[in-house]
Structure formats: C-alpha cells, structure tokens
Amino acid sequence: MAWIRSTTNGNVNFDADKAFATKVQNAMLGALRKHDPATPDGGVKNDDERDSPWGVLNDISLGNSRGGAHLSRACLVEIEFIDVATVDRLLNTGSNVEDVRNDLAAAIARALLDELDVSFDADEHLTPIKRDPAVPKTDRSTDGSDYQLPVWADGSFPNLPWKMATVVKGMNSFEGLVRNSFHKFEAEEAKPKAVYYEAKFAIDADGSGKLTPGDTSDDNTSLHDKDDVAFDASKFPFIVLPLPRTGTMVQDHGVKLGDLGVCFYKNAKSVAVLYGDLGPRDRLGEGSVIAAEKLGINGDPLRGGIDAGEIGVNLPRHSGIVHIVFPGSGAAKAHLRSNDRAGFTEHTPETVDVEARSLLAKLVG
Q: Do 336 and 203 share a domain, yes or no?
C-alpha cells in the first residue's frame, strides 16, 4: 500500500500526492503479481487512518507551502509484511528472490521517472529533461497531443497517414524514446496494423561479423538467419527489441522478434529492417551497423550512432529516427523458441526490403 498525508493533517497538494501514490502503488502491485498473482492491493491510504500522521510526509519538512510553486509529491510505500510466511518466501527466502526484488525496484523506478520527467543518459546516469521555458510542465500534454513529427518526416513522407495513429500511453519511461511519440495504427480494410515511434539510434554490432578493435559486442544475436547463424550486423539491417518488462512494453502491441519495419531519417533516407536482437528492458532506439549506414548515420560501434541528447528526446523540437513496425509481420518466416527470445528467420536482407516496403505501401493506401 502507499500512504499519503491527509488534508486534515495539513497536506497542501493532496490531489497531486494521491495521483503520484496511485502511480507508484500500481507499478509495485504489477511487479509483485507477476510473481504472486494473489498479492492483495492495499491501495492508497490517508495517514489520518493512523493513530498519528507519518512524519516523513510532513509538507513543511518537504518544503511545501500552500499556494507555493513546484510542490514536492510524496508517499510512503509499505510493500508487504515480512512476518507473513508467503511474503517472507517471496522477498527473502525464495528461490527467485533476486528477480522479485529487481522487478519490484525497476517498476517503482519507472513510476518515479515518469513522474519526475527524467531519463537515463548513455552511461545510465539520470539526466533532467530540458524544457522550453515557454512551455511550463503544467501545460504539457499527458495524452500525447503535444507530440509533433519532425518536420523532415512529414515533409519527406507526406502520404503516410500519420494523423490516423493514436498515442500509446505509458511508454515515456523508455530511455531514448522521444516523449509521447509511441503511436499505433489499427488495422482496417487493406491497411496493416502498425506502430511507430521516434527514438535515438545506438549501434548494435553484435553477431557474426568482424568486430571493431576495442569493441565489446557479443558474437551472437537473438535471432539467426536461415542457416541458424547469428546475423552479421555489417550486412543484415536489423533493429533491437527491448526485453519484456513489468508494466507497459512494446510486446503489448503484438510485436515479436522477426517482425518487419521501416526506419526513416533526414534527407528522405530510409531502411527496411526487422527486429533481430533483444536489448535492455528500458531502452528503445538501437540498430545494426548497416541499418545505421543506410540512414546516413555513422555505424562505428565505438563512435557512431545518434544518442538521446543529439536528437532532443525531451525537447519541444526534436529530430530522431522514426520507426514504423508491423506487428505479426514476421510470423510466417520466423521460427521462435525460448519464450520468443531466440530463433531463426528465413528472411534475407533482400526479402526484408521487399516485404517491409510492401507493408508500408499498404499503410499509405
């Protein structure tokens, strides 16, 4: 459960605290129920239900004052009671304690990141979102209506039905994703189902190709070619799918390894790709060496790519790589195993190009 200061105990921003506590509580509950579906929902409670209020939630101590600006939000979380045998096994003595704790911590962290509007930089340090002073946070949309495509995308590909797509909530905690850019197209008549998002483009040099001296890339990829050999990142255009996580994730929209897509960048450059490797759970925006080069991006795994700061993921004006992906499009040729985390595909770079662009043409109509 999550506790908040009650109005009778002097809370000067009760509604904001309650919304924040609800976000944290839901994240925590989802992580726990992944491992124990019977976990009860303690909900959000006011501290006037206690004999005495929580001192750590005192607004004066938090620097809040009635009518003040930039008020801190606060809640106190009680995860579970360790004297309950099932809870003790879940969080303390069980065989998968580490996974439970990691999932729980990650879920709460994502809720905090979403609330605080911060992201991870390339070294996994927290970096504040840089805002246009003319656009106060309180005026920013929470439903994605403030997102606009880069000028070059709308101008270079005007026939794509961008305005038919609807924003997908809950995705902003992905590092590298332009805020509110994750959208979906619903399938209709002859048009395929699709999702699109704007993101950075880190270099994935994993696979069977020759590594750059000093590079620490893996010699394997999650998906292999038709001969069951890891992709060569210098020859096969692929992008990276984040591993499944607690809460909202790309896989919620039917996307799997082997699915096809097209990436767009400046000067009308594009490359047909498939999801060929799995990457960190909380990152979006990574692709193979050859995919980067076809987009006009430096494909050097040590010095290349385009990071989140370069594209302005949290700025009103941004210019990332736009990815359009077609959920389920790889099923006919992908043979997956290990809970869809490995396998091989019959696709070649040539068939990826033909089939992905055919799907794109159908989306245009």
A: yes
Check the CA dihedral 132-284-300-270 and report its sign.
Answer: negative
Tokens of 104: 């729980």
For residue 119, give the H/E element and its range: strand 118-120
Whether residue 104 is found in the same domain as residue 157:
no
Q: Which pLDDT tens digit goes with each residue over 6-33?
A: 999 989 889 889 988 988 888 888 888 8
The amino acid occupying position 40 is P
DSSP 248: S
Confidence of residue 127 (pLDDT cuts 50, 70, 90): very low
- State whether 185 and 63 are in the same domain: no
Residue that is written with structure tokens 């594009």 in the block? 270
Q: How far apart are CA 223 and CA 184, in angstroms?
A: 25
For residue 180, give the nearest of 30, 318, 16 by alpha carbon. 318
Rounded mean pLDDT, 135-149: 53
CB atoms within 10 A of CB 277: 24
- Domain range for 104: 2-116
Same domain for 17 and 67, yes or no, is yes
Asked whether residue 338 is domain-assigned, the answer is: yes
Domain count, the chain: 2
Is 45 inside a domain boundary? Answer: yes
Q: Is residue 131 part of a domain?
A: no
Looking at the domain assignment, is residue 298 inside a domain? yes
Among the candidates 81, 116, 151, a domain finishes at 116
pLDDT band at 137 (very low <50, low <70, confident <90, very high): very low
| Residue 9 sits in the same domain as residue 106 | yes
pLDDT at 204: 93
Beta bridge partners of 188: 191
Give yes or no: residues 94 and 190 share one domain: no
Query: How much is the mean pLDDT over the chain?
Result: 84
Residue type, 29: L
pTM > 0.70: yes or no: no
- Strand 269-279 with 238-242, pairing: parallel
How far apart are the C-alpha atoms of 222 and 207, rounded to whole Å? 9
